[in-house]
Amino acid sequence: MIDLDAVSRLMRDVAGDVVLPRWKQLAPGDVEEKEPGDLVTIADREAELRITDGLRAIMPAVPVIGEEAVAANPRLMEDLRALPELWFVDPIDGTQNFVRGEDRFAVMVTYLRGGETTASWIYLPVQDLLAVAERGSGTEINGQRVVMPAPPTDIAEIIPAAHIKRMTEPLKGQIQTRLSRFAGNRPAYCAGYDYIALLDGRRHFLLYNRTLPWDHAPGCLLASEAGGRAARLDGSAYDPLALEETGLLVAPNDNAWARVREALIS
């Protein structure tokens, strides 16, 4: 049994103790560049350590794979399918937004069993919104059950959050052109924020190319348990341990997924 509430309390505590006190208060030495355009802050590292320790206290035998730990030691991503259980942690998703003092950042945790996402959490600290899902038990935001609303029938009213920068041609150019059919592209540059916006109807589909597990395993389970569909662009199922950049489309239901895919790439 997973103690969902214990993980929720841990995330709120770490956000309150470590993340929010650093928001808009970062000193120049508190921010580093892991690689061009990929930032990490002292808050990312401190939060990941706290969450990792907390998860080990909750389930001592289960390995914890954090984004910043992987940045320091990429070999942590090897042989993940051999692990019967594991946690993924993204201590601050949307670090660039966090550094700029914007409120679109999230703390995310996912639990996998047998390679399948079994439980997930996304917490938006500034908004104090906590989304939780357990496979087969639905999705809740702040304790209230969520079923995603259907998107508008008119495609011109559909609002996407599409991240296409990492796509390759000719697909990138095709999708860039076809996004003009929709009501303006509004990515948050924080997957956690995007997924919450999809759950509450402010966005009507999400599109990504790079799908690192700590970025997307949490949201894909939340969306699926709220009635949505998360799948690769070829229609194959999303696999959190498949690291190839083959695209990911998430929509409020099967019909919306098919309509959006047809509008984008058919």
Automatic annotation (TrEMBL):
Record flagged with keyword Repeat: no
Binding of Mg(2+) 1, residues: 67, 92, 215
- Give the record's keywords alphabetically: Hydrolase, Magnesium, Metal-binding
Sorted alphabetically, the Gene Ontology BP terms of this entry are: inositol metabolic process; signal transduction
Which residues are involved in binding Mg(2+) 2?
A: 90, 93
Which cofactors? Mg(2+)
Q: Which InterPro entries match?
A: Inositol_monoP_metal-BS, Inositol_monophosphatase-like
GO function term, MF aspect, one: inositol monophosphate 1-phosphatase activity
Name any one Pfam family assigned in the record. Answer: Inositol_P
Does this UniProt record's set of keywords contain Metal-binding?
yes
Family statement drawn from the similarity comment of this UniProt entry: Belongs to the inositol monophosphatase superfamily.
This protein's name: Inositol monophosphatase
Please name the taxonomic classification of the source. Bacteria, Pseudomonadati, Pseudomonadota, Alphaproteobacteria, Emcibacterales
